[in-house]
Amino acid sequence: MMYIVEWGVQEAIVVDVMVTRTQKIFVPVRSRAVCKIVVADNKIKVVAIDASLKVVHESAVQFDKDLPEFRTESGVHIHDDQLTITSPTIMWVKALDLLLTRMKESGFNFSAVVALSGAGQQHGSIFWKDGSEKVLDNLQSDCPLQVQLKNCFSIPDSPIWMDSSTTEQCQNLEMMMGGPQQLTDITGSRAYERFTGNQIAKIFQTRPADYERTERISLVSSFGASLFRGAYVPIDISDGSGMNLMDIRTHQWCQQALDACAPNLDKKLGHLVPSYHNAGSIASYFVDRYGFSPECNVITFTGDNPASMAGMRLQKGDVAVSLGTSDTLFLWLEMPQPALEGHIFANPVDASAYMALLCFKNGSLTRERIRNLMADGSWDVFSHCLETTYPGNDGNIGIFFDVQEITPSAVGIHRWNANGESVSSFTPGAEIRAVIEGQFLAKRLHAENLGYHIGSDSRVLATGGASCNKSILQVLSDIFNAPVYILDTTNSACLGSAYRAKHVSKGCEGGDKVAFSEIVKSAPAYQLAASPRLEAHKIYTKMLERYKELELQIV
Ligand code: ADP
After folding, report:
1. What is the DSSP secondary structure assignment for residue 183, as one 8-state letter?
2. Residues 302, 369: one domain?
3. Both 299 and 166 in a single domain?
4. Ligand 1 near 369 CB (within 6 A)
């Protein structure tokens, strides 16, 4: 995916390039189920914003439709083992030129772009063959990128986030690090098949000669930046956190993890930089071919999840809750407590902070099932039931995991009445309240397990299908004791990178550094959907303790 941000002729346009995965950008399942997920609408996309952060241009190239010669489905190739999933690296290269050509044909004024940045699907890796940096450094503007770079990749098919073929490498990494918790304490996550360290380990083990002749390994994000820069751009600390290789506190590679994956890896990965690093000016290829200003800066690209966090304008104390098919939490953390569930990343807009991701598989589909059973299939009836029952649900409490849950690892439907007795059913009203309270208590519990604290300025930013339901959001607000705002996340990863690029151009480092929150101040205000009620919150604080014990019983 690619974005461009534009803000005034004298000021800047920022381009954000991003290879997207729109269906589920984040799948934290450490299992083969990952590869079953269908990614629709895979594309490279660009968004340009002006000085007031208004989107002034959008375009996209769909891999399957616009580049049929690569024969991808949703931008990927699923191999015979059904576990190995890759994308042709050169397809991404060709897509970038096609996208820029379309923009040029539409009359887009590239000369007004002062800075560009981008986001890439997390975890994917690009293996540059020996001698490729010279080719990058000498790009000729009269010849398309894909012709010049066609022999530059020692592994022509990039492993991507959907790949789940590295279970053995994950087990080995956890063992070499002293166990899953030890690996998590350092890198923020236990070993996951899609995480890049494990993917690199597999390449080294199965294709040692190709690994040997690799001079550089990029993530999809740093790969995009490298194309624009005409030189290798370092991996940023936020996307680097999705590799099982980086110490999330020191922002350095963890030598022990590198050694456990493959030899000489530090040289092939290069050094790490903050996500708001200015990588330098754009390559002359883009100046001559498309009319970019030679002064246009390339700002470090990052992963799509960190970029989304920036696009959602998350601040200290905030939590973003996506209420979709799965429910996902994005947390801003000051002092992380890495746990075996969820992921902790370096924060993309403030290197002294962290971000965390938690995924709950039993989200909207469970809510829908209860709606169908207890509310005649109507959200209005469902909402009415919530409004006519009381916080605390008269002591009834439930855990509804229709399918194997990720956070926590458990399955099954469990109900307890006010006497603590396990019961097989509730009244319709109690059942509806129990599912919503149970889901949101779990979110607060697991957020706090990762080190999240609700502060007096904390906000809950709600997004996804269920965020239109104010009765549901009221429960969320009461449980988190924070106002809930509704968030439009259309283009959030794109916009996040555009904002980041503006942040760097306005001076994000040094003595007079500008806070990211200053940069995004003029973005459209969020709509307040629910305010916390003190009495209800007191009830939920007690209920949380009870929920915690009950959850432990079923795990
Ligand atoms: P996805 O994760 O697939 O992108 P969405 O974020 O679009 O999903 O959310 C879709 C879900 O939103 C549906 O499964 C539906 O259950 C839920 N939804 C839609 N309208 C409402 C509503 N009024 N109240 C609660 N949930 C709703």
Report:
1. H
2. no
3. yes
4. no
